Fold these 4 entries.
Entry 1:
Amino acid sequence: WTRAHAHLVSITLAGLAVFFWCKVLHHLDWSYKDTALFAFLALLLEPILGAANLTRPEALCFSLLSAAIFFFMKKHYFLAILLACLATETHPMGVIVFFFFFSYALSSFSESDWKHAFLIGSPALVLGILYFFWINNASLEKVIETIQWGRQFAPSPFGTFSEYFIHRAYHRHVPELIVLLACAALFIKHKVYESQRFLSYALVLTLIASVLIKRSDYIYVIYYFPLFIMMMISVAKLYRKEFVLAILFLALLVPQYLFLWWKQGGFDMDQYIAKIRRAVPENSIPIIGSSNNWFAFMQSGRFIDYGVVLSPEFVEKYDKLYLIEGYYPPY
């Protein structure tokens, strides 16, 4: 098992997520042309493209979330809520899927739909919650403690957006932010929200969710970006400028990706693995590092991903630890 295999899995899951979002748009009566533009932009922009090329849980969580939204719209409530619970167990950010559910319910449900969703979905929710606590071997108190622990590292309620749009290297996403804000202004000015009820509710409710969840890692913007893309396409459609929107993002992003390839294309994973193996002595002391480092020590049973270092109590269990140099959140 190598990083290339892991990336292949992530790429497949990210593609599957985009497929389900295209099915969502078809359900919302979007044209094939606009749906194709959505797929093009989703696969071009960094949030989804980046998740497809990382050894992180976002691709899996995002694909489960996307499938859950589609099945919820198709009134397969048991399956949808079960998938939503699996997404939340995969990563806490998966809980945002319930805000998508509520957005669609507000935009489309009749009174009987509410009752039907509650009756069919409640057993799935109970089953999903039981599965969550069983597989994590956690108490409710521990879950609350973990949530509060994660929130303390978020500098602001909108930390995810500021990290992505403002603080990424070379401020490369600022042009995207300008386009997005311009489209948001036109979306409101032309009252597009009146004809795009699900999109409008989802934009508002997921932004509220970002305040409640309060996470600061840029990668989490993936859960919001399908809505941002939908909004930009809706505005471009008003002016019949869909092609211009596609060309604009090609002009913005292709030079960035070419620069990235030029700068990092020579990275040799095998050489990196050999280097850190030589640096860490052969003994029983645990090793803490990033997911990339796991490939060097997956056979040793000593490796611990930094993401599980959730408290000072964890470190206190060991007299010694090896920490592989790299970027880590401020734990």
Note: The mean pLDDT is 87.
Entry 2:
Amino acid sequence: ICRAKKLTIMRYHNLNTIISLPYPSNSNNYVLRFLDYFLASFLFIIILVRYNTRLLFSITLWDISILLNFYAKILGVKRITELSLVGSDDPLTLSIQNTFYNKLKLYQLKVANHIYCVSTALYNTCIEFGFEEKKLTKKINSPDSNIFYYVNQKRQFEIRESLNISENKIVLICIGRICSRKNQLYLLDILQYLPSNYLLLLVGPGDKEYIDSIRRKMKHDNINNVIIVDKLITDVQLYMMASDIFVFSSNREGFGTVMVEALMCGIPIVSLYLKNISEDIFLHPSFGTFLHDKSPHNFAKNVKKFHNNKCETISFKAKSIFSAEVNDFNYSMLLN
């Protein structure tokens, strides 16, 4: 598995054997970066041969994954490539934004033995582009129910105390990279239509300029009921369990796994509508709502409607549909 900041190779016959290597740095020193790539490539080839690797699963179209898929093809290793973001790594976008880098990404998709799509939206772009159905698998991301699960109110307040969040607040949470694509600035606009006991919690690493723009808006509009946790959190499920409702205003996604994680914690969702993605998630009325009307006032009205709906029933139904335990069999079949 190759993913953003790390390079991981799974041995086909023993999926428990995982080897991780450091991903090449983002240094501006191009000599150092070239040496990083050279070292990573050298180690990768050794591992491919040493472990008689049969399968390379790339979880992103990234510069290092393009290079490693090229080596794997030469060595006769089967290759599965996952698509994860509409408007970024889907084949239609890559063909329209016809840069040299995107041509390399598109080549990786064309020569892949199989393409793994995490949502209906991504699957449809592949069909529209011209890939045959037999080359595609549509399979949503499946969170681990041992990590994301419902907690009762007593435990919720204990978690809030550990995170310095008042038990008297109604907590709206948005988890994910804080950036313009995720559109968290929009969520500040809904607060003017909500009582002061509502608290907006933004959790995730972010773009400095975008976070600064959020802070400027907070200062300009005198907004003091927002907490920003702008760093990578390893126990993000605690913030989820401490909250009452999940709010999402992203402009585009590949799937929106974080919404499924919220549901598995028993938390209802209020989100702006995402074509062919909302349909994959909104499978039961208790799960919340996806809004076509994007006005902040309408969003706030639906927050008030659903903020008391947190319950174990949502968690139970979400687990029965989305959990890794339920979907593991299909995933294993794909690898086989």
Note: The two ends are 15 Å apart (CA to CA).
Entry 3:
Amino acid sequence: QPAWDWSSGRRRLLIEAAPATNLCTYSRGAFSNGTVWARAGMSVSDGAAIGPDGLSQTASMITITGSSAYMMRWINVTAGQTVTAAQWVKGPAGKKVRVWWWNAGTASVTATMKYVTLTGGWQRLTNQSATVSTSGTVALRIDGGDESNLDTWVVGDTLYFDNTQAEVGSSSTSDIVCPGSATVIRTADDVRLSAAALAQITGAGGCTIALRATSKTGGWILVGAVNKTILADYGMLRSDGATAVWFGTPLGGTAFGIAFTAGGGGRRVSIGGGSVQAAATSALLDLADETDIRIGARQDGIGAVSQLFVDELVVWPFAGSDAGLQSQARAWA
């Protein structure tokens, strides 16, 4: 399922182009489980506070009781992989939290320590990566260290932890919660219009769809149909068949807009408010032949992570004019 980000302001829908697995079992609400999570210099109360979604009582309260406090657990890794950790944390402004891979256990990794300075609100420390040289178990450690390896936590400090994530790859993806002993896989995300909805909006008058979004971690934007026919890549048009592979312009954090229409003047598209272009005869979009439409980011074919924040997706039950397409094919104001 696509996930909302929990930042202030507008809530943006995050679409993941590729599946991912959280290797950290008991990742939320189990920090007090000493069999799973080793710790020192702290006491833990699970389910003690509202988590980063602002709704659920999922956060664990961490009270510092001694020096050199830490939380640590073992993760199974495989030689040759890159693994990346992410951690939700909230604590006193100015304190620091460090997440790092430690050469303990039977495996060996190469990694640098990464930390964040706390602001008093929920923060997610992401993209703490390590290269695995031998298979086995390796320690994922959370402590109060800073860039000089000094401990910023003191007795009496109170922090809150929520979901911990460890996954294969060099970038952190959206939250995957492992509540128990089994790892959890998040499948690639689709934003779909149901067959019933398409039947309503694809009458003689056609339809118009506008998408406004922001690329989060690079990659390419795809508007595609169920048979994988590509409708529009950012910056280009394609009308390939079901098995062809095409790539658009890497976005790298770009905000953009796409609007396209079918019926009432043929298939037309505007990208970024640019000139309206007619689709090829072989059809960028043939709503009559499709059971649904999928809109999202995709991988570049070699495993790179691609993520997309959707700011707005609007469907109108009529074919828009050229001027209408250009006005809707813009980034979020």
Note: Residues 128 and 220 are 24 Å apart (CA to CA).
Entry 4:
Amino acid sequence: PDLTKTTIPAAGQFDTMAAMRSLHLDTLRAFCGSFAITQQGEHSRWAVLGDTTAGGIFDFFGANRSNFDTLALAPTSAFSYVSFSFDLPGIYKSVRSLAMAGLPQQQASAVQMAEVMISSQIGMPVADVLALVGGKIATIQLDPNATTPSPLIAVSISNPEKVALLFHKFGGNSIVEDSYENGVTLFKTKSLNAALPGSKDPIPPTPYYAVTPHFLLYGTDKQAVRKAAQSDSASGSARGSSLADSSETSALRAALPHDLLGLSISDYTHHDWAAEITKSLGETEKSDTSKLSPEDIQFFDTMKKFSATILGKMMLRRSVSGWWKDADGIHYEGFSQ
């Protein structure tokens, strides 16, 4: 599709079409994909084809890499791991170009003034602050059966001392306590959605942040954040096995290219499918069957005749997928068993 011919209404004084041209949407050539069910499981592919060397929207994505060091933070007991590369300076450059192209000259000058003020307040150029982020982020779901999912988020950083200083400088009012041990700074902060006095709403979890030699970690499980931080500390214990180390997962990973832009791994065997099925069927018995169609009632009656344990073993067991960038576009491939 030729996205440059798409008409986008102007928003006040903002020249939307000029802003869109700065993203080089004319470099996009096609969107395509496929899905197949084989004897080995599900196999899916998709691609966004275009000239990635032209910049613009493709600058949002980082570089392919062979080593996903955040995998060391995902133990074999974890449920899922998702990591991808991004280019924060590239994203900022593209968004800035979009704003400068669409704004009137007077407002565009205000953007430059704002950058100067921010740099003065931070004590370093905006570009240097963005460079503190290493361009890799990972989300790890440790407990698949938790009532409220509490993922561990890890962002790569290049200078932990400066990151910790900025955290102290701009998060001072929200920091409840902090500590430093073995190269790790741990912060306990106030919840952004604190319950009002006298409210019957559940108390929101407490956020914890940790600055390690290589990552900025976030989570609401203090022990999980601390354990992940210690594994990356200078004197941390030897790293154990990760979610990717099982033979089945390794085989699926080997089917993907060596260097990837992003990697996703899920181990569904850690989820209690039998309990989930039993719970779901039990809830249907308590529900008002008058709201169900005869076909729905027949379906649930049939399901009750099967063993929840057997049905659980028929569910997905694992999935591995990856995406990568080359001169022709962004590609994705995934396998599920």
Note: The chain has a mean pLDDT of 81.
